[in-house]
Write a structure and sequence with these properties.
single chain, 66 residues, mainly alpha, 3 helices, 0% strand, flat
């Protein structure tokens, strides 16, 4: 996204507006006891997600050669 264009400026403004109200909503739901957060990932799934997010060059270094 290019922040110098009119579209980029609009997108940043929308993101800022949404971010401004996010903490208030979370705080209210925590006080009400309704905020649970996301469920934790299983360890094997967490490792798989972390591996997939690595650049391909690093994945080749980690994977054993067949």
């Amino acid at each position: 996204m290019d922040a110098q264009t009119s579209t980029g400026k609009l997108m940043l403004t929308v993101f800022r507006c949404a971010a401004q109200f996010e903490p208030e909503g979370v705080a209210k739901t925590k006080i009400a006891g309704k905020y649970k957060g996301r469920k934790p990932l299983a360890d094997n799934l967490r490792q798989e997600v972390m591996f997939v997010s690595l650049p391909k060059v690093w994945q080749k270094l980690i994977l054993p050669a067949n």
